[in-house]
Amino acid sequence: MSKRVAFLGPSGTYTEEAAILHDPDADHIDYPSLPDVVAAVDSGEVDEAVGPIENSIAGSINDIVDSLIGAQNARITGEILLPIDVCLIAPPGTSLASIKRVRSKAEALGQCRKFLSTHLPDAVLEPFDSTAGAAASLADEDGSVAALGPRRAAELSGMAVLQSSIQDRKNNVTRFVVIGREPPERTGVDKTSIVFDFDREDAPGLVYAALKPFADLGINLTKIESRPTGAKIGVYYFLLDFDGHPEDKNVSGALTELQRHTAMFKVLGSYPRAKLPQA
Amino acid sequence: MSKRVAFLGPSGTYTEEAAILHDPDADHIDYPSLPDVVAAVDSGEVDEAVGPIENSIAGSINDIVDSLIGAQNARITGEILLPIDVCLIAPPGTSLASIKRVRSKAEALGQCRKFLSTHLPDAVLEPFDSTAGAAASLADEDGSVAALGPRRAAELSGMAVLQSSIQDRKNNVTRFVVIGREPPERTGVDKTSIVFDFDREDAPGLVYAALKPFADLGINLTKIESRPTGAKIGVYYFLLDFDGHPEDKNVSGALTELQRHTAMFKVLGSYPRAKLPQA
């Protein structure tokens, strides 16, 4: 039986592209939300899942982290870096001049502002709930409507890519994480993601004290973020990504020291560090 | 002439509610994006603007910060805390039993999952581009369709609020910032927001060293965040909010010390600390 890999649907999104990149031979199953994706791994309904966690322009996407905090078995087992390449999608044979309307997620329309104002200055922009839905909807239109989205959306909807990489900022990369149940083995080039909070709020120096063991032991932090807990504004938990693995002596020392200061503490996962795929 | 206050449109959103709360007598002018909102203040086209910067559940909304980094005159001059109260909106006289479809932004549908599964388990959920648009669209439907959104959206569309505060998590608060050009005077109960980066990447201890002066001088950090720069993944700048004002001696000392470590450094604004409005 094939491995079952969940992803945030619908089909035809960048997340599906990442899930296919992660494991081309798996059955890829779409779920309606990131909490559902994590729950499917946690319960054993699927073997793995892929979901977005950070975009180089838009910033963090924290639904996965929020779900992992409460999970029993699900953990981060890998990461995937995917360049976000926005395509102009239309029925095969459509000319740029015939396009009167362009539809996509509001974010994608905003990411391609320069292309649209240069090449389609008179086109009406129509915000749509998903890039995949926008591409699929073209089947019901004449050739005067185009969509913006991933190549995968064009493939699934039987449409053509008129032009690729039309986003304003070329360095648009999304970081996805792989969620699984079994911790991967240490490779020597690993990253670890942790979350913690303090039992006091508003105390000067708490964050500083928490970071001291990492600085003292020469551990490189790759991400730090305070996140509102939802309990009340101004009460935060902290997310930290750093280079290393809990089996490394300096990492294990830093984590032990850190836990002298924290109330809640959880390792979200240790996993091999990703490289950008070669273009 | 009335003061002109820009907000992220469309009308009928929580952001318009915050803009009205900030200055009920101003002309409130909707803009299509947060970068446009900041640019309107920066150029003098409007006097002030209001935009979301952080939600207690969803996390940071960083478009405003990204725009302020490049702004000449625009700065943060205030903050507003607004409880996000999601309403079930339908034509006046609609009964719960007659509702077959519910439409809203996907985020709002997700925030009200418990209410929907308890009270409207058979309703079809329809993702919509904005809560305001969802409420406005009800005018074209029979009484079998409802929307989720702010009270303001019901008012503007001539619809009724069937039930208020239906979100799963009651402590759902959004923090908005006021953008202006003139720095407000020190009140003694102030917050300051800064952004900075380093000229080296991946160096252990940089963040720790940057936070030391704040710990040493007893300054309470209220938020810390690393943000991808968009240049490449893994290259970050840092956002810090803390209690105090650059005219306070300890704050001025910490900022001077901090700048010994940073490459880019900018004060985004100092402003009176907000309290939650009384219910």
Explained architecture:
- Two copies of one chain form a homodimer.
- In chain A, the strands form three sheets. In chain A, strands 1, 2, 3, 4, 5 and 11 form a six-stranded mixed β-sheet that branches. In chain A, strands 8-7-9-6-10 form a five-stranded mixed β-sheet.
- In chain A, helix 2 (34-43) packs parallel to helix 3.
- The model of chain A has no long low-confidence stretch (mean pLDDT 88).
- Chain A contains nine helices and 15 strands.
- Chain A is α/β, with parallel strands linked by helices.
- The two termini of chain A are 32 Å apart.
- Chain A is elongated.
- Chain A folds into three domains: 4-83 and 172-180, Periplasmic binding protein-like II (D-Maltodextrin-Binding Protein, domain 2, 3-Layer(aba) Sandwich); 87-163, 3-Layer(aba) Sandwich (D-Maltodextrin-Binding Protein, domain 2); 190-272, 2-Layer Sandwich (Alpha-Beta Plaits), CATH 3.30.70.260.
- Helix content of chain A is 27%, strand content 32%.
- The interface between A and B is large, with 53 and 52 residues.
